[in-house]
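Worked Example 4.2. Consider the chain below.
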Amino acid sequence: MNVFAEFDNGVKQAALDAARQVLTAGRSVTLSAGGLSMGTGWGDIEAVTIAPVPKRITRGMVVVFARDGLWVAHRVIGFVRIAGIHHLLTKGDGVRRVDQPPVRTDEPMGIVASIWRCGRAISLRTPGARLRHWCRAIVELFLSALARLMMN
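Applying the procedure from the previous section yields the following C-alpha cells:
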C-alpha cells in the first residue's frame, strides 16, 4: 500500500516531508493511501493513521517505510539478522514475496495505528486486532516460505 498514492510528485513529497516531521516530533498523522499490495481487505480504505515507531516492533504490526521514493505500509512477518544488523521481514498481505531488501529496524517512520473506512477510524491496536494481525503475519510467513519452495 502506498501512502499519498494519488498526489503528484511535488505535492506528495512536500506532504510526506511534513508528515515525517510530525512523526519525528512524536505525534500521529493521518494520510490518504492506496494500492493493492495489502490485499482486498485494505483496498477500500480512505486513509491510514500513522503513529510514531514504538520502542519495540512486533510481528503483525504494519510498518511504514520509504522504498523507491514512496512510503510503503507492509506487515512485519518476521525478523532476520544480516551482517550483524537486525532487519524486519515485511510483506504486503496481497503479494507472495517478502520485500527485498529487508527493512532495517531503523528505517520505519511509523506504524499504521488505524485505517479509515466510511469516515470512521478502525483501530489496529486493540487486543483483538493485534491477535488477528499476529496470526495474519504467521500465515503470511508460511505462505511466502511455501512460495519459495514451489519456485525451487
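The chain has two helices and nine strands. The helical segments are 9-24, 127-151. Compare this with Example 4.1 before moving on.
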